[in-house]
Batch of 4 targets.
Target 1
Amino acid sequence: MKSLRVLIVDDSSVMRKIVERALRQAGLNVSELLEASNGAEALAEVQKGALDIILSDINMPVMDGLEFLKHLAALDSAKGIPVVMITTEGSEARVVEALSAGARGYLRKPFTPEQVRERVAPLLGGNQ
Amino acid sequence: MRTMSSQGSQGAVAFDPNWKTILECAALEVFEIMAGVRLEISSSSEEQNGGETAMVGLAGALCGMVTLRCSRQSSVRLASRMLGEDGASNPSTARDALGELCNMIAGNFKGKISQLADRCMLSVPTVISGEDYSMSATDPSQGVTITLLFDGEPICLSLIIQN
């Protein structure tokens, strides 16, 4: 099983911990966990090195998740990194917008570790 | 579970008494999934004024607020269930966890009402610590309050709607 470098993007440190815990409870082999509190910080992390997957909130200050996706699409170094959006809003429109902007999936809060695995594992190229 | 409710002429969604059941359902789901606890709904309207109060504002087709109140001890126990030892060791983390629970309950609630899902925005959560305060909404307002029991301790959840 491949070990994963994961970036979690959320303005709430508690939500970042919850997502990390859910990834580990889902049985995913997370070797390195990077955190960012908004899209701008996340772009800086992306440019530092290879990531296996990004999980990002949509509603954030400074740069929200949708804006982050648009900037990410323009980065050569980010090509092929799957992004899963995490949302509290029940808005279908926001989810459609995120998927159109390049997100490969989404998780709606509240989520179980099983749901995290269902959304994340298929995006990891059969390594999990 | 999704429901429909009447819509006013200016796009506002009118308060529906059936929302109490939907709010209960939304809350029970969030506590069970995120904290691994199956709460009971109390038949009495036991008040919980103290400790911590998390608030999330609603704006758009529905304007108002969702509040979640519990004792400090309950907030720490909930946080430790959500986050492990990290949640129990830091009071600030426990408060933030309560805010996130309130945020998820508000989001889950509006997601179950088809007319609100795309047309009602949530604020970031705010948490007040302490007991020496009172809350009031500008009239006219309507709302529902439910009391949930967590290890016998009340957790009060309110939906206050500005008409």
Target 2
Amino acid sequence: MIPGSFDYSAPSTLEEAISLLQQHGDEAKILSGGHSLIPMMKLRLASPGHVIDINRIPDLDYINEEEGFLKIGALVRESDLEESDLIRTKYQVIYDATKMIADPSVRNVATVAGNLAHGDAANDHPAVMLALGADLIATGPNGTRTIPITEFFQGFFTTALEADEILTEIRIPVPPANSSGTYLKLERKVGDYATAGVAVQLTLDAQATCTHAGIGLTNVGDMPIEAVAAEQALIGQKLDDERLKTAAQLASDASDPMPDLRGSTEYKKNMVRVLTYRALKQVIEQILS
Amino acid sequence: MQSITVTVNGQVYTKEVEPRLLLVHFIRDMLSLTGTHIGCDTSNCGACTVLINGRSIKSCTQFAVQADGKELTTVEGMAGDALHPIQEGFKEEHGLQCGFCTPGMIMRAADLLSRNADPTEKEIRWAISGNLCRCTGYNNIVKAIKYASAKMAEQMEPTEA
């Protein structure tokens, strides 16, 4: 499979990349890891006239905690997250999701920011970032703006990014003590999209009352879904088994999956319930242990 | 057309390429290095795996222009005077049947062993999860990588002065 012809630029600054975006408008696509874009180009589902490769822009591959946020730069690869001690020890929900994405060679290339900017409800990081309450930093001709993750996904493969903006940073509030998370993904084989995926991030106080709950769902609707009612059912509560079951059912109710080769609507909704329950139980154990 | 300069297996090549040329086609058709195979052409099977700056990537899902200025290793670059320990492992442990997946498996194993010199069986299986063997010869592939890990450790041991 050979993609259609296109012009290629590999700018060495962000400013240059943005001015190319302005110049070429809808015709241009940003290439970072390319593991969503290039397959679409090979299938001719996408035929951009101009590809802007941002991989030559320096200093976009940082993972660090600063000013109360975990900051992840646009060119951080999935494998960088997988190999980061900070991510493994403090952001288990990200770690668990990352190692379930595609396979090691793809993870050497694919970026977290690309996974989000593609706007695909089947991708894994959107649910994770919903659970963590991330902010996304978009850089355009007029500088940067902050887009809360809850406003980022606007429809089927549609995000809040303007045509001349680049997603340059992911900003996650550093979780307080007694916080933990996980990502559970049901997949048919390694590297497959999720039949259903659930990201959970919880914080408990000293009395084991839940003070924060974030629940994101993967590939069970047109868009990544935040299970708000399920979160509300947990916050301010003692998390006994009944409470977890209620929340799991509410998460399932929030899902709206299409039937496909991975299963029927009913099956997928039930898997959301099962995975949410398991994830909540596991995260509580992680916090208490 | 765009001019790119790529170092492949230690040799520097400068070529004019169309931006849409896939890296795997550049390697096979322009450099005539046909050890790198095309399997699924959809980044699932790993037959086209090569190293860029030491990390394994699937060359069917990158453009050749992206490799400009980079260092590539293909299976042809593994052996010196003797077989590379990974190649030797595949030979000794019958790690190949039809051999189609082998170059990709070897390059993936090279990335793994460069970062984890003594992987467990589980780690090896996880590491090759994006490389498919249609002969289903996985057990011997795992043994081959184990063999290579032991052999490379042996070679690393300082000799007595």
Target 3
Amino acid sequence: MKFKLFLMVFVLVVTQSLFGLETKIKGEFWNRYTLKMEGMDVKNSYFSLERGYFTLEPKFNDNLKGRFTLNFFSAVNKDFKDGAGLKLKYAYLDFVKLLPQLNTNLSFGLIKHYFGTIYDWNYTTIEKALEDREKIASSTDYGISLNGILPKGYGEYQLSILNGEGYKKSLTDVNIFPEYCVNVRLIPFPGITIGGSYLYENKAIHPDSTAKIRSAYAGVGRIKFGILDFWAEYLQGTYIDSVSSGYMFMPVFSIGNISKIDMEIVLRYDFWNPDKEAENDAFKKLTAGFNWNILRDESFKPVVFLQVNGERTFYDDTTKKATDVVTVQLRWIISNTIK
Amino acid sequence: MRFLKFLMFSLMVLSSISLYGKETKIVMTGSTTVLPIAQRIAEVYMSMYPDVVISVRGGGSGVGITALLEGRTDIATSSRKIKDEEIKTGREKGIFIKEIEIAKDGIVIIVNKNNPVSNITIDELKKIYTGEITNWNKLGGPNQPIVVISRDLSSGTFEVFKEIVLKNAKMSENCLMLASNNAVSSTVSTTPWAIGYVGLGYITEDVKPLTLNNVIPSEKTVRDGTYKLSRSLYFYLNGEPKGEIKKFIEFTLSETGQKLVKESGFIPLK
């Protein structure tokens, strides 16, 4: 029933969006095979549609744009009995060029969460961004955000006020205190990006309740030089007295521009300590793989590509065996603009 | 460790293979307005240097700039200035955007040859393209509906027209959006009550150019700024030009290159 209701809303939005000046319709699908192993024991082996995004981007005029995205996916739990799940991913209006000299936009609705690497994480590895995987920050949330680009492309900044629950658990933990989030990225020289984000929220239900402070910060660095694109992130999250922290390094070698093979070779190393007070709960992940761009569109953006990743997790707890996950994913994108 | 060694070795081999023969190939992608200039200069350059292969592609200014940001073209051709957001994306990817102005151009309002109207104002144009004026009799012409033709959204010509004429107002939904200057010119020539706009280099005998605010679109009026619908045309590169690309840019800006700009129907820099 929920599914049908969402479909009706979707069709309604499609129809409505056609009244805009132009509407971009986009679909992105992730067909995945996953093999999970613990030592030599196979724990899981399955095919799935991990994500199926349908996006509408109506442009009412140069100063007003919108984005609406639904995520359809293969469901593996009892909440979705029809074999497919559905989530609302984006639903916002962008008031563009609010302060034209400062390249400032205002986004309102279910918007991007401008924190760490999560808002521009392009899934170069099949695995999620560190803050997403460790549930420090969700990729989207309900709220309002002032976004700007520094003159001559020297960087960007965002100031956001959000619910703080994220899009997956929206309205489950609403209180009177919003989340405040600030993000800055600077590009002092072409190819060198540094940035940082900070978020703060009191999750107490009532002003008189004991404060339950949730906060997090992230430091981000990126070096792009020749075929190397190197990403690094340090992340720390605090909820009341519990502190978790970790970091990620990800070198990506784009060999497409120097060879006939349009491919990226990806390596990634993650370290995560879920609770600094606890012992033996930290783990490390090592990922290696490649992204093969099978087809690009007329703007040379990849529209069909194959991702293959092998990931091994090592635990500090010596009683736990290392686990391996092999994922093979075919991502394909369709888009068209109705004028 | 063995894997890393193998990876580095593979990358070195692939680099060596790809470097062989690469110096003599130049790829240009982007604006359909700049296309005739790029094609003409490339043809002459290749005849002078037979070992150089220049591939020239259209698609629109936006496509050219995206191709440059994706590392898929050596030169992006554009009939609009690059945006701050595009520069930011470039800087993130280690691309230092170098802008080179190569010519000037006027956007000319054209109508069918049999249309008696010969002048239009920017305000009237805005009203036509936003759907406020729909009949030629409001402009001193016959009682005939106006067929409004525009360039498509990926076009730099459209971006400049939108900025100067529409001033970012919403364009009428009845506008026919076409993918090239040639398509606009050809449709206007065969549609009695049509109006469209094209780059100066696309004026043919089959269409009638209008004066804008009583100013004739010409090299002189574009250069001295009295013709308001004018713009610069650009090459965008990743960093300072080097090697064959530097030679090609120098040739484009040379007296011979600028003569070819003029032959293509556009306005040379000097």
Target 4
Amino acid sequence: MSIDTQLFEGKLIRLAPIDHEKDPEVESRWTHDLSLLRALWRKPAMPLSVAQMKKKYEAIEKEVDESKRLFHFTIRGKEDGRLLGFVRIEGVEWTHGIASLKLAIGDPVEREKGYGREALQLILRFAFSELNLYRLSAVVGEDNPAALNFFKRFGFVEEVRRRKALLRDGQTWDSIHLGLLKDEWLAINLKEEDHHE
Amino acid sequence: MNNNLLTGELVHLTAENPEVMAECFSRWYQDTEWLRLLDTDAPRLLSVKKWKEWLEKDLEKDLTDGVFFAIRALEGDILIGFIGLFDLYHQHGDTLVAIALGERKYLGNGYGTDAMRVMLCYAFNELNLRRVGLIVFEYNPRAIRSYEKAGFIPEGRIRGAILREGKRWDWLYMGILRDEWLAKRIMIS
């Protein structure tokens, strides 16, 4: 990559701003799939109406603007621009160069198509070579093995297991903290480049 | 029944008015060694007035989002620090705890460990939580020892999360489950 690399362009998807006109209806529909909300947040899962979603988008953009600690991007189809999901870097601590990551592909039928993988590659490059972060965290519940494997495939390693920190459907699960250091990300990328040559 | 839920052997936990806490915070936050053990934020040196405003705003918050107590030494009823619960999720029965003693001469004499014991009793017996966790920095062995004494078990480390004096240090997570806490109490008694 070089100085003119387009950081938000992938092959199948691109990262883009929120569309306040079109997105609320789509994401409101996603929030009715509580398993998606459970995978992302620890607070009680609750669906949001289109009106509530509109307000939430406004709150997100306000936080991005004022806190300087949050980056929130939508994931959209490269050709048609349709909303596929979102990816965010949260809780940036600039003095220490650390932050955490959330990624979602909203509609189950759009998963397993490589969109999430590309979005993660873009956001890792953004985090490490644009924000110059030292490390990224991702927190995943033990009840979500798909996400756990997804992050591990990209080099994230398990760092913390907060034992039985989640209680869902009458069962307890560990809350697992994964971490990826910039050096580890660089090493993986170099190896892949060698592979392609 | 324990009718003295907030009193330990050396300390008791209290609710304080903003002006009292503001004076302490403004003073304690000038002690950078103390702050570096407590927080990853860089010091900002807020005035007593600003701290008071901040704490008054805090009064409007829903009390169920977290818990905050001052720590007072029983002897002389002197305010020596604070202890609080944050990231409190009632539906999961899980919380994080944070503790700090701003009055340095009380450090290393069992006051913190005692306050932690009282807080755990409150978390498990009043809030009926299932577990309590905490974050401690790798370069704070005194705190780690105190937490181990209170029954916390290491749960992992966030590698290199802190950059200080040109060196990377880990964040350590520790936790105690309700059953572990109960077993420890039976052993002591």
